[in-house]
Amino acid sequence: MGLISVLINATDDPQALTRLLTALVPAAAEGLVREVAVIGASGPAHAIADDAGTGLYDDFAEAYRRAKGPWIAALPPGPNLAPDWMELVIAHLAKDEQRPARLVDRSTTLSLSARLEGWLIPKSLAGSAGVVEHDLQRLARRGGGRLRILDRR
What we know:
- The protein is α/β, with parallel strands linked by helices.
- It has a single domain (8-151), classed as Spore Coat Polysaccharide Biosynthesis Protein SpsA, Chain A, CATH 3.90.550.10.
- It is 39% helix and 26% strand.
- Strand 2, helix 2 (43-52) and strand 3 form a beta-alpha-beta unit.
- The longest helix has 17 residues, at 14-30.
- The chain is globular.
């Protein structure tokens, strides 16, 4: 049973999307990731996401509403995932069952722009009606957790 539904906003960089989807495969095989949804994909990104078997959605609210995992993660498609990202996420989930977290770049102590920052929240904290992505990102920022799992290198 997968714990996390991963939501990814589509990008114009098909290689970045391919890298991210490939990095998620071991987590799906291990049961950490339940499903992946790509939002707003067109052209090559749509073909890549479709070939990978992800859910394809036009808007964030629909992807969120259909997410089945008890945790929701939003990942930016630009940076890579750090080699130990699964272990860090598993440790966070084991340590504090309801604590949201920001997913940030491990190579800097400065906050990334909102575009390059991800988040992880328990779906139960956000509910399902009227969900707006920036509200969930704000919830993760207030939650205080910070997982350094993104790697721009």
